[in-house]
Amino acid sequence: MWEMLNxxxxxxxxxxxxxxxxxxxxxxxxxxLRKESLLGDVLAHAALPGICIAFMLSGVKSVxxxxxxxxxxxxxxxxxxxxxxxxxxxxxxxxxxxxLSVFFAIGIVLxxxxxxxxxxxxxxxxxxxxxxxxxxxxxxxYVLGGTALGMSLICGLLFKEFKLVSFDPAFGxxxxxxxxxxxxxxxxxxxxxxxxxxxxxxxxxxxxxxITPSVAARYWTDRLAAMTVLSGAFGAAxxxxxxxxxxxxNQLPTGPISVLAATGLFLLSVLFGPKRGILSxxxxxxxxxxxxxxxxxAKAGAGAPATQAGTANPAGERGASL
Length: 322
What we know:
This protein is mostly helical. The chain has a domain at about 1-210: ABC transporter involved in vitamin B12 uptake, BtuC. It is built from 14 helices and no strands. It has helices spanning about 1-5, 10-35, 35-60, 65-85, 90-115, 125-130, 140-155, 160-165, 170-175, 180-200, 205-220, 225-250, 255-270, 280-320. The longest helix is centred in the C-terminal third of the chain and has 44 residues, at about 280-320. The radius of gyration is 28 Å and the shape is globular.
């Protein structure tokens, strides 16, 4: 860890991974509660054709142009998903699966055309599939830091509104809130964190870093505020673990290791989370069984003298009558 802090390049990777995980964890909480876990996957896979089109139109490998193209394609995929689910009888999860497959297939076709066409094989666009955190620079860290800070401020200012939209949007409409605008605001936040995380984690794995910390945090608390903070902390810890492990072992990518670290935190939460964890449930069941047995023994102990007294009185009455 000290070697990472002393090396400037490794320090940028560490800071970028922490900020990326924190931002994904904060925003992923509301996406998970709204049962839109697949939405992040849709946006991530839909970003690939946007990146390819941006390169084909400009002919320049510019991360800024790639992110603009990815954001435009992701928003188009989200709008198409919403249109399919509302204008047809197709359910939202099926619409997400259709849009994800179509956009990702288009991205693969365009990527293959770029690599085998006049654009050359050195475009480096294939790195966006699985990410390359090692290519992050100080400017990327500033972007991730600004994104994480902006996500935290927006979620803090609109916390009550996002909470209402996540649990009961119909009740929010009844109170006069602009639920549709709030839903689009959440969609925009998810798009931003997904697009900014593509460079480090890739389009294939960025959705996992968006949802897994939130699911892990759900096992530790029933309060949304605490869950949001825990989700951000779990995401940051996953990013730090991924950067640290990948820096110590050669040929290990940071993005997939960060996702595996988040999965490890999820498994620990499933096992040891209070009230919801497997171990906690086993202990509660054992305690409930002990309480039930003690109550039954107490009832049996209290009923024994009364039974003996009830059998002794008739014998005494018969003896007195004789």
